[in-house]
């Protein structure tokens, strides 16, 4: 059959470029010490930045949620699937991020991917101009495709280029969209400057804080707290499957924006509401993030980040300038990044090699992701192993 033959040929081409991906199957919960494909490994590749994904209190809260609300929601939010658990979570999330938004209201989604599709498609219609940062996450890029607005991409961190585009735009609705913490580089967007531009030119600023929520800011409220921002122009998207340890996402903004999304965002309307038990568990997750335990975990994570940066001594490879839990070691060629990842794996260390199209060509890398669940000894082990892997790679 020709259709299958075509696909097989394309798969072989990917394999030839060292771009074929494979999934590894974990038998243990998300944690630093895991068993994957039958092997015990020390993992540095999850986004479980606070180590909450297998926290006993969250496991208990999920059990309690299932007992109270059952398992499935049975319907979309606008038909019959909107549970008290969802409503309570939305209230809690709105209150949590309210220092940064005017008249904050929050809307819960099953995934961040869908939240991004929903925000951009609902806000950036045919009459809008949409300005998108070049290193934005794939879900935002797909959101710009679903939106009917005219899309213009500005270079990474280039606020001057953005200002020129905003100045030239005569669209009634302008939307600027950016990751706060770039997921493959770990650096931060210049949010204060971006927000100043948006206020000056009357544009929404959509901030995807997937890697900041729970981690950044003294209380874990994320990038807006980190930069001490507050504005009615802000539309905030936080995910709940990374630092929050469970799953799902939320959009928080002025109540009018959220009401518009409830009425008009197709990725919100035409899908079954998430399991209420997850929403119930997330209430405990927000308690953990905002409480004493969250503060202690964030402080520990900061220590581990500083420790890793001090312990890596690279010659040819390059540690990207990042102060977040995402610490990329840029290697360059796909094959060399794969070899490095394989050599770490032989030593029982799981660090993923990230290749194009996730990152630009010739910037294949090891993405070391740290978690508050790691110990100083764990970080020492991975740093020494990367130092050795680089030395061996030269030889
Ligand atoms: C993970 C991620 C998403 C998607 O969130 P999910 O809840 O995993 O669907 C969106 N944006 C960024 C920057 C991410 O890293």
Automatic annotation (TrEMBL):
Residues 40-386 form the Aminotransferase class I/classII large domain. The modification N6-(pyridoxal phosphate)lysine is found at residue 242. Pathway: Cofactor biosynthesis; biotin biosynthesis. One of its GO terms (molecular function) is pyridoxal phosphate binding. Its EC number is 2.3.1.47. Belongs to the class-II pyridoxal-phosphate-dependent aminotransferase family. BioF subfamily. Catalyzes the decarboxylative condensation of pimeloyl-[acyl-carrier protein] and L-alanine to produce 8-amino-7-oxononanoate (AON), [acyl-carrier protein], and carbon dioxide. This is 8-amino-7-oxononanoate synthase. The gene is bioF.
